[in-house]
Amino acid sequence: MTIIEALLLGLIQGITEFIPVSSSGHVAIIENLLHINSESGLPFEALAHLTVLAAVIGALRKEIKKLLMEFCRSIYDVYENVRIYFHNRDKKDARRYKKVISNNYRKLFLLLVITSIPTALESYILQDMTRLAGDNLLAPGMGLFITGIVLLVADFFPRGKRIPRDISYWTALAIGLIQGLTVFPGVSRVGITLAVCLAYGFQRKFAVKYAFLLSVPVLAGSFIAKWGHLSGTSFGWQIWGGYVAGALAAGIAAYFCIKKMTKVLQNRRFYGFSVYCFIIGAAAVAGSFLLA
């Protein structure tokens, strides 16, 4: 992979990561067109996921800080409840226990964890199939068709009003199971997750926040998985220089894109993204037959 190819892939990765058009699908299409071997591109993909993760944390730092603070407070409340239990048992007292999940941020943190667990398991189980699907143009093209259809349908969902306190843990689990299938190239994680959240009646602003916050464990898991495949391999500093440049381009593009897309996805319909997915998907499918 040349530095120009790395920069191109990095920009595409960063720009499309938070647009519901599948970054993995776009990267797979470009890699196939440029004949970039997916195995040789693993170091770049790992670094790109790391820089995009840093961009997400930077862009959503206020929300993430609140989540972590409330998580720490909830752990302290659990500790206090243990102390109260032993006090009540030993002193025959009846002190009241603290409510651990006492606000929306504590509930949101738990929902995010529950959603992330099945996603991580499915991603691990399907990783070999995902790698094979990315080695051709047909699979990402079909994935983009699926994304386009889901986005088109999502526009017809009624506006929901549900926020964390209204969401059940079973709903979070179901979202995680469906999100796990978006590991296939062309199937947009943001687009599918948003559509499922809206189908469950999430408030639109909350649905966007939920989908974007879920990218933190997804990107972290992807980085760890891809980096794990690199054990025992070595590359020259010239190659790593290209990878780092491309990864930095991905992170910078992702940071500015997430800021813009937060507002766009909260207020606009998905029709335009759906049409785009159909066009790129059709071009990829046609290309898979023409270039066969």
Describe the protein in words:
- This protein has 292 residues and is mostly helical.
- It has one domain.
- Helix content is 75%, strand content 0%.
- The chain has 13 helices and no strands.
- The chain has helices at residues 3-16, 23-33, 42-59, 61-91, 104-125, 127-133, 138-154, 169-180, 189-199, 204-213, 215-228, 237-267, 271-290.
- It starts with a helix and ends with a helix.
- 42% of the residues are buried.
- The model has no long low-confidence stretch (mean pLDDT 89).
Task: Write the SSE topology.
Layout: H1 3-16, H2 23-33, H3 42-59, H4 61-91, H5 104-125, H6 127-133, H7 138-154, H8 169-180, H9 189-199, H10 204-213, H11 215-228, H12 237-267, H13 271-290
Helix pairs in contact: 1-2, 1-12, 2-7, 3-11, 3-12, 4-5, 5-8, 5-11, 7-9, 7-13, 8-9, 9-10, 10-12
Key phrases:
mainly alpha
Class of secondary structure makeup: mainly alpha
- Low-pLDDT residue spans: none
Measured by DSSP, the beta-strand proportion falls in: under 5%
Number of domains: 1
Residue-averaged pLDDT: 89
Number of helices: 13
Helicity level, as a percent range?
Answer: over 70%
The major beta sheet can be summarized as: none
Radius of gyration: 21 Å
